[in-house]
């Protein structure tokens, strides 16, 4: 059976193309057992602020309307520097690092455009991609100290444009050491699962998911837990590249993924999800 769950789903309440209702219809069509929404909570002044009360009301309405057919969860995708005021109203929270604060008063994302990431690197890190990556991982390591997270989103988003910009070699110790330190802290000290995020793979923007294989291998060595998510911004991508992510996870030595339910985490074997292929 295919993987029939996703916990990283965007809608028109933030930067998605489809309404929450349309995403639910697509999940039902695919036969999903679980669908988690993850509206963005960006720092003030970044993008269009999400109407969080309206978002949570709509997800709660859908949750009730489809109870018994699909388990819907109301999540939030929180940034390191975002507001946390609605956290307690949500069923879960993705801890996602998009932004850096290189100097007080400046907050900049690593995933806007390639040009802006290069400019961020040039302006604040002397054009040194390793310094940019180190700052990113140091920020990310602190995310679960700022607010409680359910799992970590797109762990190595700082590499979003690396295939085109070549800011750093993703196998170089200067890149891997701060990344591993952050991962070890989040996994060992905070006990957090990491998502294997197919969002960029899905949209042909990267050839590998987040985390990239060298970091996914380290996660396996740490004994870390994973879940697969599509970071879907449109319904056609809701289960996009799940088989590729599952095959990669299996090749690296993972034998199960995790499903988030209203009563907690549940494991599902990868062999079963790949139908013994
Ligand atoms: Zn994100
Ligand atoms: Zn997202």
Strand-helix topology:
Blueprint: E1 5-6, H1 20-30, E2 34-41, H2 52-65, E3 71-79, E4 92-96, E5 99-100, E6 108-109, H3 114-125, H4 129-141, H5 143-146, E7 151-152, H6 162-165, H7 173-189, E8 194-197, H8 199-202, H9 213-222, E9 226-229, H10 242-252, E10 256-261, E11 264-269, H11 270-273
Parallel strand pairs: 1-2, 2-3, 3-4, 4-7, 8-9
Antiparallel strand pairs: 5-6, 10-11
Bound molecules: zinc ion (2 copies).
One zinc ion (ZN) binds at residues 77, 96, 98, 153-154.
Top keywords for this entry?
binds zinc ion, 11 strands, alpha/beta, 5-stranded parallel beta sheet, 277 residues, 18% strand, TIM Barrel, two-stranded antiparallel ribbon
What features would you describe in this structure?
This protein is α/β, with parallel strands linked by helices and 277 residues long. It is built from eleven helices and eleven strands. The strands form four sheets. The protein has a five-stranded parallel β-sheet. It has a two-stranded antiparallel sheet with strand order 5-6. A two-stranded parallel sheet has the order 8-9. Helix 1 links the parallel strand 1 (5-6) and strand 2 (34-41). Helix 4 packs parallel to helix 7 (173-189) and helix 7 runs parallel beside helix 9 (213-222). Bound molecules: zinc ion (ZN) (2 copies). Residues 8, 10, 38, 77, 231 line the site of one zinc ion.
